[in-house]
Hints:
By secondary structure, this protein is an alpha+beta fold. The chain contains four helices and six strands.
Amino acid sequence: MSAPAFVPDDFEPPSGLVTPEFVLEPLGPLHNESDYAAWSSSMAHIRATPGFADGSWPREMTLEENRADLERHARDFAGRSGFTYTVLDRSGGDVIGCVYIYPPRDGDPGDAQVLSWVTADCAALDLPLWRAVSDWLRDAWPFLKPEYAARF
């Protein structure tokens, strides 16, 4: 017996989200250099972000390893097994964060595990991103109980 699908077959994943402060679009290899610059300059900040303290990422990796990671995220998106969006600055289009929507880990409650981060120099956008993504999950996604670490 196969595992149930992460999202229903008839669900069309959103192509992105636009807010006054940032834009979300599917993450892919075309974001490699900007994505690498964003997270590698903010590793301590990301680890301090709710949901990342106990994870294995971010960790040191090369630009080529980062590209492979972005290619994996793009394959997951195409295969509907996980959805990663890059967070782009509205003014310059630079990567300033990411949003990950994946099936919950074994034993985790909810029907999706959601994580997000922003760079240290865009820390003030963490709460607006969390609010926008929380609303987006409620309004545009099929999940009933996504787990997304709260911001205060």
